[in-house]
Specification:
With 87 residues, the protein is α+β, with helices and mostly antiparallel strands. 28% of the residues lie in helices and 11% in strands. It is elongated.
């Protein structure tokens, strides 16, 4: 039997890119805005010099905030109950 060994507190690495298939009428700027990343990063990553074509597959870098939250351990916020109203 094969077992994977994981150290306590170790997390799997989240992908730093996603794939997007271009739909007719989309532009790099629209696609980048949908993923909350600068269009220049999408162009650089995909070596684009002109418009995109329908059905073209693009690699989309994840937004910094998404990368940071994906690699940051989840924390639970402590809530304090409101004081009871007195009459």
């Amino acid at each position: 039997m094969i077992q994977s060994i994981t150290q306590p507190g170790q997390q799997s690495t989240a992908p730093l890119q996603k794939e997007h298939v271009v739909v007719a009428g989309e532009t790099v700027e629209q696609i980048a805005k949908n993923y909350d990343v600068p269009a220049k990063y999408v162009r650089q990553l995909n070596k684009l010099s002109g418009p995109v074509q329908p059905h073209q597959k693009l690699r989309i870098p994840m937004a910094r905030a998404a990368v940071a939250s994906a690699t940051r351990p989840a924390t639970s916020a402590k809530t304090t109950p409101a004081p009871a109203a007195t009459k």
